[in-house]
């Protein structure tokens, strides 16, 4: 594996390592990288000398900024199936990570967004640092949380996951642990030392012992403090009602959340809320990934994903023209269409 490979794969002692290696793009995932990770996991699972797997990111900016959204936009504009094929393999990888036969350790340092959450937060040992910014930013780009994100956020305490999903808010280390996206906080400067220590583990049970030597208490987050107004305002299946409650509550943070939601794609906000509520009732990650695949494929046929990516990533004017432009204009039939079977069929996970 050469240093210019998009994923650096190697075995050090008893530890198999995968380093996402597109630092200039904050290690954004493309289809080739997903397939490389899948093939590597296959091999390492059969390798008796490998005790555990570690994933991290090259460079100083983060583990992974998400999927290659420019490629998704290109696919939507072209009307082809490139994005759907990418999502199929990506979601199968997410499911594989969650059920992997060996301990899967993720260093969630720096930026961990969207697809970066998918290759880390389904692991068994998830390490954040003081630099971590973890989130699902999809409503910002006219999309809906995927890679199992609606599964994870639907299982956060109270309505914290609903708040994070609708606003696309990223959280720091303490809040990431609090909502169930991570397990441990380790100072970023100690990650190389932790990685070296993990190369000498001789059993799965030794991992917790090793990690515990590096864990430190993170700086306090805000979500636990804000839980009162978040739970009160987001405990509804109606997006307009949630916004009204946020505006009426009185807390400045609640009013700010309302304004944020109203700046996001109205179709994405309503579809995300419906997806979260369905995910909460689902029995497994696999069921939710099947649902997310349907929703993602549906987004290819609507105007907002291409427009959101244009505004945030391509032209960077931060001024998307959503269609429709308000929550009131998005009716139940618009939302329901997002859950229709994907043209290419199910993932086959359930």
Automatic annotation (TrEMBL):
Annotated catalysed reactions: 3-hydroxy-2-methylpropanoyl-CoA + H2O = 3-hydroxy-2-methylpropanoate + CoA + H(+)
Lineage, uppermost ranks: Bacteria, Bacillati, Actinomycetota, Actinomycetes, Streptosporangiales
Alphabetically ordered keywords of this record: Hydrolase
Entry EC number(s): 3.1.2.4
Membrane-spanning residues: none
Pfam families named in the record: ECH_2
NCBIfam families given in the database record: PRK05617.1
Species this chain originates from: Nocardiopsis alba
Domain of life: Bacteria
Major enzyme class: hydrolase
Official protein name in the record: 3-hydroxyisobutyryl-CoA hydrolase
InterPro entries reported in the protein's UniProt record: ClpP/crotonase-like_dom_sf, ECH_dom, HIBYL-CoA-H
Residue ranges occupied by any Enoyl-CoA hydratase/isomerase domain in the UniProt entry: 16-339
């Amino acid at each position: 594996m050469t240093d210019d490979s998009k994923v650096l794969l190697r075995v050090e002692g008893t530890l198999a390592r995968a380093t996402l290696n597109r630092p200039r793009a904050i290690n954004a995932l493309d289809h080739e990288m997903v397939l490389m990770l899948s093939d590597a996991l296959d091999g390492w699972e059969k390798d008796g000398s490998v005790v555990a797997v570690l994933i991290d990111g090259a460079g100083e900016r983060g583990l992974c900024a998400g999927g290659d959204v420019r490629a998704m936009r290109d696919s939507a504009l072209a009307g082809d199936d490139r994005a759907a094929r990418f999502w199929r393999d990506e979601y199968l990888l997410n499911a594989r990570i969650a059920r992997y036969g060996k301990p899967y350790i993720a260093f969630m340092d720096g930026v961990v967004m969207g697809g970066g959450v998918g290759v880390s937060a389904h692991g068994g040992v998830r390490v954040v640092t003081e630099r971590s910014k973890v989130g699902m930013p999809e409503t910002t780009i006219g999309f809906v949380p995927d890679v199992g994100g609606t599964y994870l956020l639907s299982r956060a305490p109270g309505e914290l996951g609903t708040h994070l999903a609708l606003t696309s808010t990223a959280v720091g280390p303490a809040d990431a642990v609090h909502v169930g996206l991570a397990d441990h906080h380790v100072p970023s400067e100690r990650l190389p030392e932790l990685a070296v220590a993990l190369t000498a583990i001789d059993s799965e049970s030794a991992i917790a012992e090793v990690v515990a030597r590096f864990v430190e208490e993170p700086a306090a987050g805000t979500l636990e403090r804000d839980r009162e107004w978040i739970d009160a305002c987001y405990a509804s299946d109606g997006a307009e009602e949630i916004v009204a409650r946020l505006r009426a509550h009185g807390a400045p943070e609640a009013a700010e959340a309302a304004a944020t939601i109203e700046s996001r794609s109205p179709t994405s906000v309503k579809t995300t809320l419906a997806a979260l509520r369905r995910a909460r009732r689902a029995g497994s990650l696999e069921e939710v990934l099947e649902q997310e695949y349907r929703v993602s494929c549906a987004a290819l046929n609507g105007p907002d994903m291409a427009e959101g990516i244009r505004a945030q990533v391509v032209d960077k004017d931060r001024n998307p023209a959503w269609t429709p432009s308000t929550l009131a204009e998005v009716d139940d039939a618009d939302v329901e269409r997002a859950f229709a079977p994907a043209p290419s069929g199910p993932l086959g996970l359930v």
